[in-house]
Specification:
This protein is an alpha/beta fold. The chain has helices at residues 13-24, 44-51, 73-83, 104-111, 131-145, 161-167, 177-187, 208-233, and strands spanning 2-8, 30-36, 61-67, 88-91, 117-121, 157-160, 193-196. The protein has a single domain, classed as Spore Coat Polysaccharide Biosynthesis Protein SpsA, Chain A (Alpha-Beta Complex).
Length: 241
């Protein structure tokens, strides 16, 4: 079984477009949307309508899990992972729109037993102001593991369910969840397979709101590194493989 988890916070119509993209390529049997305290709340009726618009696979299920207040991306991912039942789990951002259909390509290497952790490398977005944080995360992972990743912050991933559920409690670090996933995966000897995929997502630009968002992302990456160094490297915590 393939489970897809989409954490969503105030994603609006872009979320429903993402679900329509998933419905167009029904490679999944379980879809879990985790509403991370959105205002207005995500509509379960709209989710069902979007996800089944094009007739998803018979027997597939769509579920909405609500967090009462905004707890951050990492908590939403952790919640969805622990709620899921799939042997393979796909993690997707809510703002991909109909390009979410490309996620099927993330699953193929898992099903072929070519990898246990697959990460999408998105096309470069000139002027998005995000490169410095990507390089910082990549260097931090490299210093701790000896592996350099091209897309350490990519939210589009497919991972074997067994190790991912072991790692889930460590992901409650907001936007640092992807950095933590990289570290735990490499610690357990699972090298992420990076594949180029032209997902489309919301561009932040260089507005004050966008810069504030990036500052919070940077803070959370630092949280993830601190938590990893303190609890994993020193004490072997969080599902030591």
């Amino acid at each position: 079984m393939v489970s897809v988890i989409v954490p969503a916070y105030n994603a609006g119509d872009r979320l429903y477009a993402t679900l329509r993209g998933l419905a167009a390529r029904p490679f999944w049997e379980e879809l879990i949307v985790v509403d991370d305290g959105s205002r207005p709340p995500v509509s379960p009726e709209a989710i069902a309508a979007a996800a089944f618009r094009q007739g998803s696979r018979a027997g597939s299920s769509v579920r909405l899990v609500r967090l009462p207040v905004n707890r951050g991306k990492g908590r939403a991912l952790m919640t969805g992972i622990l709620e899921s039942r799939g042997a393979w789990i796909v993690l997707l951002d809510a703002d991909l729109g109909e390009s979410a259909a490309l996620a099927e390509a993330l699953v193929r290497p898992l099903l072929a037993r070519e990898a246990e952790h697959v990460v999408a490398v998105l096309p470069p977005a000139p002027g998005d102001g995000f490169g410095w944080l990507r390089r910082f995360s990549a260097r931090a992972v490299w210093r701790r593991t000896g592996v350099w990743l091209k897309a350490p912050l990519s939210g589009q991933r497919a991972i074997a369910g067994a190790p991912l559920r072991r790692w889930a409690p460590a992901l409650d670090v907001g936007y640092g969840a992807e950095t933590m996933l990289n570290l735990l995966s490499l610690r357990d000897g699972i090298v992420p397979l990076e594949v180029p995929l032209p997902f489309d997502h919301r561009r932040l630009g260089r507005t004050p709101a966008a810069m504030w968002h990036r500052a919070r992302q940077a803070r959370d990456v630092l949280r993830a590194l601190w938590a990893y160094d303190r609890r994993v490297r020193r004490s072997g915590g969080w599902g030591d493989g």
